[in-house]
Specification:
mainly beta, eight-stranded antiparallel barrel, eight-stranded antiparallel beta barrel, 5% helix, 45% strand
Length: 300
């Protein structure tokens, strides 16, 4: 597999495994989540993590599940469709990174609920084909022939998507895009971006709306609404929370960043036409169940 070994990140990414369960396995709970009385578990909103107060979000979600505060709701997949049309049909292409930050090209063809073709750096990889399961209108699970599971998160138009799996492969694809995927520079991020962040907990996920403004390597992210769980239930309101990112262009459509005043680091990948970005932000160590994943469209 052709790749570029960047070697620029200081943090080792930890893929899902029995000792570090994440996307599809129960969250590895620590005593810090439950060290306070039940009545105090929802009072941690001032502890800031990365794009949002992730630890406080998880505490509220878990407290709601334990104390019956979420007002019911299904276990996910409440909007699953009864037919085979997911709106994803067609050819997709873009770039991705693996657990060691190697950059490579990916392409896939989707028909109905199946990934019928997948290629890495132009070479077909049948083991990466598989089945897609809708969780929401823009969030999907997939499982390849090797049993590796992951998420697909699309933009509202379903013309772009970020993809990630439990082995820490992370990428951005654009419908109809093909290699070569081109180059970018730091000013290609300039402007306003809008979308949402998604994080995982236990066997579910949460989301919140986000706007990001970038100018010459400095990006300011602002949360623009409440956190809700996968069923749309209110979790907590963090509207107005901001973080400032220092961004560097590394290669091709790939950038990395750190959050000023915090320990979090992350990666941004642009679509071929530079109208969509996928990103993640994580505190050390890079465990997937402690990261937020962001899908944003350019708005100006």
């Amino acid at each position: 597999m052709k790749s570029i070994d960047l070697g620029h990140q200081s943090q080792e990414k930890i893929p899902c495994q029995p000792s570090h369960p994440c996307i599809y396995l129960p969250l590895k709970l620590t005593s810090t989540y439950f060290s306070q009385e039940e009545g105090n578990m929802q009072q941690q909103g001032n502890q800031r993590c990365h794009f949002a107060s992730r630890k406080s979000i998880i505490c509220v979600l878990l407290a709601g599940a334990l104390l019956g505060c979420n007002g019911g709701g299904s276990s996910g997949g409440g909007s699953e469709r009864s037919d085979n049309s997911l709106g994803l049909d067609g050819a997709w292409g873009g770039i991705a990174e693996d657990v060691e930050y190697n950059i490579y090209e990916i392409s896939a063809t989707i028909q109905g609920r199946d990934i019928v073709r997948f290629a890495v750096d132009g070479t077909a990889d049948p083991d990466q084909t598989g089945t897609i399961i809708p969780l929401d209108n823009d969030v999907f699970e997939y499982k390849n022939l090797l049993g590796v599971e992951g998420y697909i998160v699309t933009d509202p138009s379903q013309d772009y998507a970020l993809v990630l799996n439990e082995l820490w492969d992370f990428g951005v694809v654009q419908k109809g895009a093909s290699a070569p995927y081109g180059q970018a520079n730091i000013t290609d991020l300039n402007g306003q971006w809008r979308g949402r962040a998604i994080g995982t907990y236990g066997d579910g996920y949460f989301r919140y709306p986000l706007e990001v403004s970038c100018n010459s390597g400095t990006c300011v992210s602002t949360v623009t609404g409440a956190v809700v769980d996968q069923d749309g239930n209110f979790v907590m309101d963090i509207t107005g929370q901001q973080s400032t990112l220092n961004v560097q262009h590394i290669t091709r459509l790939y950038f990395d960043f750190f959050v000023l005043g915090e320990t979090e680091e992350g990666v941004i990948i642009l679509s071929k036409d530079k109208q969509f970005l996928g990103a993640y932000s994580c505190p050390p160590p890079f465990q997937m169940d402690e990261c937020d994943f962001v899908a944003l469209n350019r708005v100006q």
